[in-house]
């Protein structure tokens, strides 16, 4: 019975229940298999005084250091986070985690480490795996490669970890290609697509769902953190050419104030709703109510929001980022556009003029499931252990 140590800086907690929820879903699916034991370690970064006295860090400090999260056994040790010195985080995480990991390993040995984000998780996992003399794997999800991989001090650590890892995962073929271009061994990289709860994300009566939201005309939805990489400002700008449409932004982030100001400046503030962080179990109803989900990010791996929207029968308008062309292979499911407001507006008008049947849209993602995701991950770990 292999014992997997899942190391994940992205993982939900009581304060941020949506944070890294895709990691939780994947890990919970793997743990359903009786032939695997899974222990999750979710390092929490706390900076030194006086920054640690800020409200956001006070609440993080209050999180339990060990708890059962659903059916998962989760540890949340603290590590010393130095803001603006991200290159130190992998070593700081490894130093903070090692005593805990060694204690757990002594009582129930780990067979491999599963790092769930390439940076800082990957290099931290490498340090710990070397101490325990066990193999490790790293999963790339998009922003870790496209953002951290552009920072020289982080990139070198990522390449070292990739070389030392027994196996690597990527959420799309496009991301695998980006990793290889960065200097990673493509022969080590296995594509591991996201999962999907087909029972939860499914079409609803769109008119009824809209009525519950108090909306009568066309509804556009974006799902994702309000950060510059997600490009929500382009959708707000496109709204100026979509006179009857309403836009709901589901997410929070650093750009919230800027996006509110932009909507006011463009005279569309009364047609833009900032919904905040929508609980994951409420997303199906929101996505099902939408005529179109729009997310034209600068970069992605393969966004869960794309897959979940399609499962709800809602066509998507997305940029050519990451695995967009792997997912969107039929125009019935939406459009891939350049990152400009006019192109977004034209694509919206095109879809609204000839809306596709919800079931035809949903059929585009019928092969996605958490069971398949878990089966593929289990096969990946068995392959790693066979090489050890």
Task: Please give a structural write-up.
The chain has an 8-stranded mixed sheet with strand order 4-5-2-1-7-8-9-10, with helices on both faces. A 6-stranded parallel sheet has the order 13-12-11-14-15-16, with helices on both faces. A two-stranded parallel ribbon has the order 3-6. The two termini are 15 Å apart. The chain has helices at 21-31, 55-61, 89-107, 121-132, 143-146, 152-164, 173-182, 206-213, 232-239, 256-265, 283-289, 304-311, 324-327, 341-353, 358-362, 370-387, and strands spanning 3-7, 37-41, 44-46, 66-69, 72-75, 78-80, 112-115, 136-140, 167-170, 189-191, 219-223, 246-250, 272-276, 292-295, 316-318, 334-336. It is globular, with a radius of gyration of 21 Å. The chain contains 16 helices and 16 strands. By secondary structure, it is α/β, with parallel strands linked by helices. Helix content is 40%, strand content 17%.
